[in-house]
């Protein structure tokens, strides 16, 4: 694939300089002046591209690679063809992520849709009572509500809605069409297109007649520093408490976070996860895609939850759970193996019965 004009190649970084920036070791110092300009999958890499490998399974892809350099663990260096420079790292995946940011900084967050300099674009509306620090960009059709406050270096994308009293920190990106209300947002936060932050949560009481009565939702959403929230994700404000997203947490697209949920620091939550109200999630928790998390439960620090799991009760710190209902991974895998054995036994019995009928 040719280089995309959406993310053009870098002017070039010397491998010697890149090794220093990554804390990696250049296997052959003679390659220090080679230059990389972009990142690429191994199999179709061309001159100027940087790649990485994590296992010997990628041996076949190396045969067609024309990459300038590859990042890998020391145990894999012998697999790399002689024409490709090697950057040795104990954590090649992490090093590659850092290299990608150096080579393609514009791809790290949604970029401005227009070429105008910082300031309020024609067609945007900023309430006279709102306060914007220096170097804030407000793109066309965005609306900044009364009393809102936005910190220096923050970009508000076209069509974004920043509600009354919302406070957004410095160097944030609020992408096109996102909506924030009843929210306090820290520094260096990225909110992708179409996210909905701070709308009222789903709370109802039984009515005196058939039907339900809406419960007032007067809490807030608090988003701490360095959080990233994916496209079309929804985070409800609290009922009478706050919904909190902890520092450094990354939330994928199309995730639903209910009212009063508290998510710890540096968690990873993958697409289509639904988290019901008042759940407490610890630090460093990883939740696989399409999982459902029951409300009013506690998930401990460092827990890992497999994709498409249904979590109905508390999970102690450090555990790995999976399945519906979610249970310790060893139990889940044993149950899956037993079901597979029973299915195989049924199929074998059916085949033998059919064969026996023919023999008669």
How far apart the termini lie comes to 62 Å
Q: How many β-strands, per DSSP?
A: 40
- Radius of gyration, in angstroms, nearest whole number: 26 Å
What summary fits the major beta sheet? 12 strands, mixed
Question: What is the correct CATH architecture of the domain at 13-108?
Answer: 3-Layer(aba) Sandwich
Structural class: alpha/beta
Helix percentage range: 10-25%
> How many helices?
4
> Uncertain regions: pLDDT < 50 for 5+ in a row?
none
Blueprint (SSEs and pairs):
Elements: E1 13-14, H1 15-22, E2 25-26, E3 35-36, E4 38-39, E5 49-52, H2 59-62, E6 69-72, E7 85-88, H3 92-103, E8 119-120, E9 125-126, E10 131-132, E11 137-138, E12 143-144, E13 149-150, E14 155-156, E15 161-162, E16 167-168, E17 173-174, E18 179-180, E19 183-185, E20 190-191, E21 196-197, E22 204-206, E23 212-214, E24 220-223, E25 228-229, E26 234-235, E27 242-245, E28 250-251, E29 256-257, E30 262-263, E31 268-269, E32 274-275, E33 280-281, E34 286-287, E35 292-293, E36 298-299, E37 304-305, E38 310-311, E39 320-322, E40 327-328, H4 329-359
Parallel strand pairs: 4-5, 5-6, 6-7, 8-11, 9-12, 10-13, 11-14, 12-15, 13-16, 14-17, 15-18, 16-19, 17-20, 18-21, 19-24, 20-25, 21-26, 24-27, 25-28, 26-29, 27-30, 28-31, 29-32, 30-33, 31-34, 32-35, 33-36, 34-37, 35-38, 37-39
Antiparallel strand pairs: 1-3, 2-7, 22-23, 39-40
């Amino acid at each position: 694939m040719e280089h995309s004009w959406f993310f053009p190649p870098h002017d070039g970084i010397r491998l010697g300089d890149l090794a220093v920036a990554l804390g990696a070791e250049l296997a052959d110092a003679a390659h220090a002046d080679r230059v990389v300009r972009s990142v690429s999958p191994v199999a179709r890499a061309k001159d100027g591209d940087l790649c990485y490998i994590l296992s010997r399974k990628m041996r076949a892809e190396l045969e067609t690679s024309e990459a300038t350099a590859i990042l890998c663990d020391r145990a894999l260096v012998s697999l790399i063809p002689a024409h490709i420079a090697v950057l040795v790292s104990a954590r090649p995946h992490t090093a590659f992520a850092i290299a990608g940011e150096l080579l393609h900084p514009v791809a790290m967050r949604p970029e401005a849709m227009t070429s105008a300099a910082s300031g309020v674009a024609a067609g945007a509306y900023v309430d006279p009572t709102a306060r914007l620090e220096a170097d804030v960009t407000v793109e066309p059709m965005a609306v900044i509500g009364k009393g809102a406050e936005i910190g220096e270096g923050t970009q508000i994308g076209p069509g974004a809605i920043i509600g009354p009293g919302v406070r957004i920190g410095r160097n944030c990106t609020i992408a096109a069409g996102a909506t924030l209300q009843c929210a306090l947002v820290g520094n260096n936060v990225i909110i992708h297109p179409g996210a909905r932050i701070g709308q009222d949560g789903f709370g109802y009481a039984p009515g005196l007649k058939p039907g339900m009565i809406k419960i007032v939702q007067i809490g807030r959403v608090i988003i701490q520093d360095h959080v990233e929230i994916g496209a079309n994700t929804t985070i409800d404000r609290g009922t009478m408490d706050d919904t909190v997203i902890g520092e450094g947490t990354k939330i994928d697209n199309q995730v639903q976070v209910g009212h009063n949920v508290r998510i710890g620091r540096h968690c990873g939550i993958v697409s289509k996860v639904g988290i019901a109200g008042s759940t407490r999630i610890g630090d460093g928790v990883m939740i696989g895609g399409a999982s459902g998390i029951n409300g009013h439960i506690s998930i401990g620090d460092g827990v890992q939850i497999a994709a498409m799991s249904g979590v109905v009760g508390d999970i102690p710190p450090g555990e790995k759970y999976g399945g519906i209902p979610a249970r310790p991974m060893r139990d889940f895998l044993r149950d899956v193996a037993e079901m597979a054995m029973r299915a195989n036994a049924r199929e074998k019995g059916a085949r033998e019965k059919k064969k026996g009928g023919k023999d008669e």
